[in-house]
Amino acid sequence: MKILLIHYRYYEVSGPEKYLFNIKNALEELDHEVIPFTLGYHKNKKSKYEKYHPEPIAQEFHLNKAKLSIYDKIQILFNSFYNISVYNSLSKLIRIEKPDIAYVLQYTTKLSISPLIALRKNNIPIVHRLSDFNLVCAKNTLFRESSVCTKCLKSDLFSIKHKCVHDSLAQSLSYFLIRKFQNILKFQKLFDLIIAPSNFTIKTVKKAKKFETTSFLHLPTFYERKFDEIATVKNFDSSFKKLCYVGRIAEDKGLQLLIEAFQILSKKKLKIQLDIYGDDTNGFSTQIKNQIKEYNLTNINFKGYVPNRKISSVFESYDFSIIPSLWYDNMPNSFIESCRRKTPVICSKLGSLEELIEDGVTGYFFYPINGQSLSSTILKLYTQTEEEYHKMTEKCYEKILSITDKEAHLEKLLSNFEKILNEKTN
């Protein structure tokens, strides 16, 4: 099968790119031909198909870091509605390479709706995979003013009212008009199937009226089995607990709750350590560091950004990892990586995370209202016996193996590809 794999960049940054390269390699191992299509960023990995990849206006992915002329900004705005260069490049690729089906990851305003139009015009079936809530939310996260916000499920107009895009009225209005343009074209009907790693994500997106009749498939992220071979038995210390957070350092990730919890725990004189891994050079990181300094929390350390290839090994050194998300996290990779290393997770009882843990068996939940609930949950770690802890490490490992099985993922994905192709043929 010739599979067109579409994503707006072709270099490793975060979870979607990890899946991009994992699925490409997995499909090629089964002798499928995978044809990547993306924008021509200089950071991209090499590909024999890069001649089809159109140059972006700016090489900086995040445009706030790019030096742009007025003409560049106008051109980027028009391309966000409909990118003719992307349409022409993809149409040429389709004409010459003749793919059977397209697997579309993230496209948003970077590629615009134009690849979907090119695919549909050439009668190429489209399967889209969701990594967040970009189909229904201007911010992609359903998160605003420190809490979950689902107003855009009812109307995109709320994105203007609340200035959801970078707190800018102009950018929020642009987003609204782009979405309006897509709705006029009935973009949701261009997809033959939408895949999401979480049942919760599917249920949430389907609350938007335009997606009520869209076909969805729940398909959790898969991971390579090679990691299983190096998951070892954890050391146990009943009096000292070593915890970690690995991920994006931002308000929606709930780091402020984590700091509040440690401030509460500091009064109990416990032996406990927290290491935070992630890019700590942004404004929110500075805010969190100031909070740590104010509370004099000397047992919290910032470890900086960790490349994807090294993240998995980080978890081995910790008793538990923590995911204190305030938004509807869509099966975060940090959860999978942690459990793969037999490191149970303490996480928010919120959104897709509720699907992943059996409280007290494979990990622990807390209610993401304030630091008190999280601190109370952390205190439970000191009442665990060694036998109970090791049983939890094994249970979380077994569960994540069953959820993220590579062969099951590929079988389900490819059987749905074949089903769609057969329906198109008949």
Description of the molecule:
- By secondary structure, the chain is of the alpha/beta class.
- The chain has 15 helices and 14 strands.
- It has helices at residues 15-29, 70-81, 84-97, 108-111, 114-121, 157-161, 169-184, 199-205, 255-265, 283-295, 308-314, 333-340, 371-379, 386-403, 406-425, and strands spanning 2-6, 33-37, 101-104, 126-129, 143-144, 147-148, 193-196, 216-218, 240-246, 271-277, 300-304, 320-323, 345-348, 363-366.
- A 6-stranded parallel beta sheet has the order 2-1-3-4-7-8, with helices on both faces. A 6-stranded parallel beta sheet has the order 11-10-9-12-13-14, sandwiched between helices.
Tell me the strand order in the biggest sheet.
2-1-3-4-7-8
Poorly predicted parts: none
Q: How would you sum up the global shape?
A: globular
| Element-by-element helix/strand order | EHEHHEHHEEEHHEHEEHEHEHEHEEHHH
What is the average per-residue confidence, as pLDDT, rounded to a whole number?
91
* Strand elements, count: 14
Topology:
Layout lengths: L1 E5 L8 H15 L3 E5 L32 H12 L2 H14 L3 E4 L3 H4 L2 H8 L4 E4 L13 E2 L2 E2 L8 H5 L7 H16 L8 E4 L2 H7 L10 E3 L21 E7 L8 H11 L5 E7 L5 H13 L4 E5 L3 H7 L5 E4 L9 H8 L4 E4 L14 E4 L4 H9 L6 H18 L2 H20 L1
Parallel strand pairs: 1-2, 1-3, 3-4, 4-7, 7-8, 9-10, 9-12, 10-11, 12-13, 13-14
Antiparallel strand pairs: 5-6
Helix pairs in contact: 3-5, 9-10, 9-13
